[in-house]
Amino acid sequence: xxxxxxxxxxxxxxxxxxxxxxxxxxxxxxxxxxxxxxxxxxxxxxxxxxxxxxxxxxxxxxxxxxxxxxxxxxxxxxxxxxxxxxxxxxxxxxxxxxxxxxxxxxxxxxxxxxxxxxxxxxxxxxxxxxxxxxxxxxxxxxxxxxxxxxxxxxxxxxxxxxxxxxxxxxxxxxxxxxxxxxxxxxxxxxxxxxxxxxxxxxxxxxxxxxxxxxxxxxxxxxxxxxxxxxxxxxxxxxxxxxxxxxxxxxxxxxxxxxxxxxxxxxxxxxxxxxxxxxxxxxxxxx
Length: 286
Description:
Elements: E1 3-7, H1 13-22, E2 26-30, H2 34-41, E3 46-47, H3 51-55, E4 60-63, H4 68-76, E5 90-93, H5 99-106, E6 114-117, E7 120-121, H6 124-129, E8 132-137, H7 140-153, E9 154-160, H8 164-173, H9 176-192, H10 197-205, H11 210-222, H12 231-247, H13 253-270, H14 277-283
Parallel strand pairs: 1-2, 1-4, 2-3, 4-5, 5-6, 8-9
Antiparallel strand pairs: 7-8
Helix pairs in contact: 9-10, 9-13, 9-14, 10-11, 12-13, 13-14
């Protein structure tokens, strides 16, 4: 049993914290919206008033936050967790914030604090089932300390030094927009050609797009897109991929096209829906 502080209880963070509790760990939780933390408090978590309170006296602190600004505020703002970390504590950031943000955090942590960046792939149902894919960056020693915690949440893999987890996550998410654009435009073409939508989706399930179509088929059939991974967060991840490439002198034209499509859908008020709502947005373009 480890004493764990968990900071950030959104769509992903809440089921992740619940799994750690169910595994027998002593978990303190904090969230900007206190009601989400209080719900876990009813199940036995210690509810902290500030990030610092959640981190104080904890061997491991996990952050699962929306973006780099949120991570900075939670660690280094008023009542931030960083100042409360014990000298031999381990910080595991599971947000998607980009490599530069992780390296910046590393340079500002108290001496003696170990750090692993461990972003995940997978949506809410996979978080609930403990089936996330976890890509971890950090020293061998820090990763081995983090691994028992990460294995409760999914399948971790050590992919390199600190920041490598973020880099791999951006590589993976750089493909997301292209897959959804392909799906949306294929459905639009099928409609234009007078095809039955169900028949088109059946065909797409057997195509190169099959994994995504199968995963989101219920949403695509119903036209209802309850968030498992918010569209606005997918747009943020594509911006991070663009920025990372630009910093290395690379242009990712396909990523830019996809990001612009996500931005358009977000401006249309679909940011809080599941990222698969981009398919519907593309179909409606006409």
